[in-house]
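Task 17 of the worksheet. Students: predict the tertiary structure of the chain below and write it out as C-alpha cells. Keep your answer in the requested format; marks are given for formatting as well as content.
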Amino acid sequence: GQNIWSLPSPPPPFNAGSASAAPTSQSWFRVETNYDHDSPPPATDDRRDPAVRAMEAIGRDNISLAALWEVLSSPPVFNKHTIHTDLLVSAWGEYRSYKRHVILDQQQNA
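Model answer:
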C-alpha cells in the first residue's frame, strides 16, 4: 500500500484516470490511495475517507508537513500494509518519501 499527499497551489487539473479521491468541496488537497477514485474503497481497507475527513478537519490555513505526517501516521490511514509514505507540497517545493513497512510491526510488537 501507499499513501501519497499533495497540496498543489494552484490545484492541477483533476485526472479522472488517476487513483485520486474525487475532489471535495475543499479541493486544496489530493488523497492518493491504491483504489480508483470513482469506486468506493473496500470495506477492509478504507484509508481514503478517514484521510479526507482528517485533512478537512485540519483545514488549509493550519496545514503543515507535521500535520500531514500526523494524518499519514494515524490508523487506519497508516496500517500494516503501508510500504511508503510521500509528502508533497508543490507550493513550498517540498517532497519527502519515507519507507514505512516495518515501523507498524515494530510498534505492535513493542
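Marker's comment: Strands lie at 2-6, 30-32, 84-89, 94-99. Residues 8-21 have pLDDT under 50 and may be disordered.
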